[in-house]
């Protein structure tokens, strides 16, 4: 069974190495791995020379990362008919690819189940024993078809190359944090695709976050504004509400405009910083 695995990375090279170590132990192994490095010209993966890795370099001159474009570029470089996408933070369980591919059909998009790891010092053994599910995501004991395409999440998904190209991939006008996943999910629904949620586990490596994500204020406002213009609906409302309550933005849920009033100060950033958070 042949399939391509696409990974995008910018920073978090240690996470990438942990991920590749995990992939090496998979029961079912990717035919090829496409690593799209955003502003990572010196990315050296020679320690994994036994793995069929192709590194694609992408230069970008903005602090808002072109994740949508990077995923599209990875898909364009892939040679297999089946495409798997993994967030660089996600270490696949040994059985992940095997379980996912069992449900593979051309009219389906498959999403795995992320579990979240605490900060780990040392080896990455027995991950399931220390990882926890996201409390705000549905948990399934078996594969199910889901009608709510807002649940689509690009952390860990798979679909046919033909279907990916037919829906046009991710909208590259989304830059930085937020928006492209929801838009892609809606594109899949519009195209008549079927969303399947699979109890195939990946383990999300811990990294610090801001709650709310103050470092992504501009990206969230810009992407939410673009989504509204495109779809007539707001997204990331929880973060917009939080920003409004902090006095950072002017926004009304029944309006059509967001305006940044000011940027967070150092005290607000310090208060929002979560060094050991597992997720937002």
From TrEMBL:
Keywords: Glycosyltransferase, Transferase. GO terms for molecular function: glycosyltransferase activity. InterPro entries: Galactosyl_T_C (IPR027791), Nucleotide-diphossugar_trans (IPR029044). The keyword Glycosyltransferase applies. It holds the Pfam family Glyco_transf_7C. It comes from the Bacteria. Residues 151-204 form the Galactosyltransferase C-terminal domain. Belongs to the glycosyltransferase 2 family. This is Galactosyltransferase C-terminal domain-containing protein. The lineage of its organism: Bacteria, Pseudomonadati, Bacteroidota, Cytophagia, Cytophagales.
